[in-house]
UniProtKB/TrEMBL annotation:
Homotrimer. Keywords: Repeat, Riboflavin biosynthesis, Transferase. Transmembrane segments: none annotated. This is Riboflavin synthase.
Length: 211
């Protein structure tokens, strides 16, 4: 997915800071402008800052009070679940990680690799298992006990199938993120571990050099 205009190469950790809300959507023709409420992420925010919205790195256009606006290109709307959002939709919000800060989750770029769909929810006494569909071109990057980002949330894969994976969610994640709200059929943004993609590229380069 291409970077939004003005976006810098900042990274996130997949540790959601707050559950925000879309308060307005403006159609700009080949793009749209979201206005989002998020008291935590807007503290000290300024024009040009990056904020991850459901795992998509967006650039702050304007900021007033506890709300900010961000423009989203048509391609991003088409290739992520942001195109399905509207006024009142709840979203996961995270600011980029600061240099020298703890990496609580894993390295997340805010570049969505594809979308999946919530297939099934299995509640338990102290956690909940969620099964999510997995696009065929991403399955090679997803392994058991590996990392994956779902709607901007850094999660550990429990089970990895050819066209699905499962994650186990603790009560805190269910209460403070969109995954506590999404039911079967709901779309989610997926970003695979960038380290896996680098390893794949390096191995391919090495095989080519050895021929």
């Amino acid at each position: 997915m291409p970077q939004e205009a003005g976006r810098t190469r900042e990274v996130f950790t997949g540790i959601v800071e707050e559950l925000g809300e879309i308060t307005a959507v403006e159609n700009l023709g080949d793009a749209c402008r979201f206005r989002l409420r998020g008291p935590v992420v807007t503290e000290g925010a300024k024009h040009g800052d990056s904020i991850a919205v459901n795992g998509v790195c967006l650039t702050v256009v304007d900021h007033e009070g506890d709300e900010f606006t961000a423009d989203v290109m048509a391609e991003t709307l088409d290739r992520s679940s942001l195109g399905a959002l509207g006024v009142g939709s709840r979203v996961n919000l995270e600011r980029p990680t600061a240099v020298g800060a703890r990496l609580g989750g894993h390295i997340v770029q805010g570049h969505v690799d594809g979308t999946g769909e919530v297939l099934e929810r299995k509640p338990s006494e102290n956690w909940e298992i969620i099964k999510i569909s997995l696009p065929a071109d991403l399955s090679r990057y997803v392994v058991e006990k590996g990392s994956i980002t779902v709607d901007g949330i850094s999660l550990t894969v429990v089970d990895a199938g050819p066209d699905y994976f499962t994650v186990s969610l603790i009560p805190t994640t269910l209460a403070l993120t969109t995954l506590g709200l999404k039911q079967p059929g709901a779309p989610v943004n997926l970003e695979v571990d960038v380290v896996a993609k680098y390893v794949e590229r390096l191995l391919a380069s090495g095989q080519g050099a050895g021929k």
